[in-house]
Structure formats: C-alpha cells, structure tokens
Design a protein that fits this description.
This protein is mainly alpha-helical. It is built from 14 helices and 9 strands. Strand 5 and strand 6 form a beta hairpin.
C-alpha cells in the first residue's frame, strides 16, 4: 500500500513540475526571445518614451484631433471585458445608438448633403415644439423617466443642481409630496421628472449642460448652465428630432461606429469608419497647425493607409486600422494637439 502511495506521490510531483514549472518556463523563455513585444502585452510608448497603452486593448480618445474607437460596453476597462448583451429591441441599446448618432450623422442629399445635422437639431430644439406640443424637455422627461433619473444621478453637479432647485421651488416640491405621499422627503432623484417639467416651463428651448466657468478665486470650476446648443442637445434629443423629421434623408454610418464588440475592448476600426471620421480629424489638425485643410487631409489619409491592414493580406475581410497605432502616428507627425 505504501509503495502505491509513494509512486502516486512521485507521479504527482513529476506532473506538477512538468506542467506548472517547466512548461511555463519554456513558454516564457520562448516568448521573451522570439516575441518579446507580444509576450509583454504589446505595450507601445508615446513620444516621451512612456507607455501609453496596449495595441490589444481599446482606449477612449476625447480630442477631435484623434480617431475614436468603437463604443465599449466595458467602458474600455481591460479588467471588465464584456458585451452589452442587449437585443436590438432593447430601449437602452436604441437610446445609446441614438445619442451616438446625433453629433456625427450627416444629411444624405439636397442642399445640405454631407453637412452634419447637429445645427438642425439645435434649431428644432430651440423652437421647443415636439409632435405639435410645447416643452420638448418636459416631454422627454415624461417619456424617458430612466434617462431623466440617470441625468440626475450620474454626476454630483447634476444632483446638487436639482437639490438647489428644490430649495427654491418649495411649492412644486410640496405638490409632488401631495401626489406621492409615500415619499414625504423626496431626494433629488425622486424629483427628476418633476424637475425637468418645471425647468422646461421656465427655460423653453434650453437644456442643462456642464461647462467651465471662473470662480471667485480666479480658478476654473465646472458649473451647470441652461444652453440651447451643444453636443448634449444633439445627442439626447436626436431620436425625438428624427421622429419629427421621418422623411429627412441621412447618410448611412459604418456599423462599427455604433455597435460594441463582443469584448468591449476591440482596438480596431474599419477603414470605412476611419474615413467617416476623417473630415473631423483633418480639419481640427489643420486649424491647430494653421495649414491648408486639403494638404493636412491628404497627409492624414496617407497615415491611415500606411497603418491599415486586411485579414490574410486582403484575402478575407476589409481594411482595418488600430486606433491607438494610428493616433500615435498622427501625434508623431503633427505634434501634441492644442
């Protein structure tokens, strides 16, 4: 019996050494010798020599001088890889896509063909009429309770703004309490819809957006102010504008501009996606550099082509670019954005 146990123990030790020590060491050595870049995470450095990211994981870019990756259900968190798992019929998916479309979609034809629809959404919004009725913001809050609640809860500035509003509109809050006796002391989130209905009546054609202001000490501070223009209006109210303008011809957008990947971390976009962003990227660089937009556009196009690839050398799939790689190439070519 003891002989059997000793042999089994030796076999276990042998298997552990082979599988958990020697095999990993061989793979580590092979990777470090023959594929050091890939084995260490495909980390790339910026012009200052410091790591800026991995070519394997998408990351967001906020400046207009850079190409944007596809949306991410994981918020570009490498430790939270996930898809949205939302069906095409899901309201949350529809709302996210609509908010993406507002600031970037263009007219398809007519005198405005090729122009962004953002200014049209703003003009419509400022008239403050939706489906023949007044007060667009009030209608939005009533139809999209979850969005109104999310607006209040997702930013401490928003929550504080609604709380301050409540102290100045005690009559409206009292009426809310009468209608909702189970909420005798409503929090800002409870008042979300009521707040937007009141705000819409007092500020027709306006919505609330965060902006930078100068404080009493001369330092920049973030504040919430009523506005009639801006990306918030273009994104939040695009779907309502579309319902009011069902016959307006709009350009089709590449699918990967609107859909997330299965991992939420796909670092690539299609060349079609990149070309759709080309006008924004090249015109912003031209403005920064005070150079000819035509010349800069050509240089950006060349950078895209130099950094593009197609699966199996073009035998399958379409051309793609790695967003981080092409943005680093732009920075190396044109310098740091203003």
């Amino acid at each position: 019996m003891s002989k059997i146990i000793s042999k089994s123990f030796l076999l276990l030790v042998f298997a552990v050494v082979i599988c958990c020590v020697l095999y990993p060491l061989v793979l580590l050595a092979f990777g470090q010798v023959f594929f050091p870049f890939q084995a260490n995470g495909s980390i790339v450095n910026g012009p200052d020599g410091k790591p800026v990211g991995s070519l394997l994981i998408a990351q967001p870019f906020t400046k207009d001088e850079y190409f944007q990756p596809r949306p991410s259900a994981a918020s570009y968190d490498g430790g939270a890889s996930a898809s949205s798992s939302l069906a095409a019929s899901n309201y949350a998916l529809r709302d996210r896509v609509a908010r993406t479309l507002g600031p970037i979609v263009r007219h398809a034809d007519g005198p405005k063909g090729g122009q962004l629809i953002g200014s049209d959404i703003e003009d419509w919004f400022q008239h403050d009429i939706y489906q023949g009725g007044p007060h667009i913001v009030a209608q939005w809050a009533s139809m999209h309770n979850a969005d109104a609640l999310a607006w209040v809860n997702t930013d401490s500035l928003h929550t504080a703004y609604v709380a301050d509003w409540a102290t100045k509109h005690t009559d409206v809050v009292s009426q809310f309490v009468k209608s909702n006796p189970n909420t005798p002391q409503p929090a800002p989130s409870d008042l979300a819809v009521t707040f937007f209905q009141s705000f819409s009546n007092e500020n027709p054609g306006k919505f609330l957006s965060a902006m930078t202001d100068t404080g009493a000490d001369g330092k920049a501070i973030a504040v919430i102010k009523p506005v009639g223009t801006g990306s918030d209006i273009q994104s939040i109210f695009f779907e309502m504008w579309r319902l009011d303008h069902p016959n307006e011809g709009l350009q089709n957008l590449p699918g990967d501009m609107l859909t997330t990947s299965a991992s939420g971390l796909d670092p690539h976009i299609t060349m079609q996606n990149a070309k759709y962003q080309l006008d924004r990227v090249s015109s912003k660089w031209a403005a920064d550099l005070k150079r000819s937009p035509v010349e800069v556009r050509k240089e950006v196009e060349d950078i895209l082509e130099e950094n593009s690839f197609a699966p199996f050398n073009g035998l399958a799939g379409e051309k793609m670019v790695n967003v981080l790689q092409v943005n680093l190439a732009l920075r190396n070519e044109f310098g740091t954005p203003q």
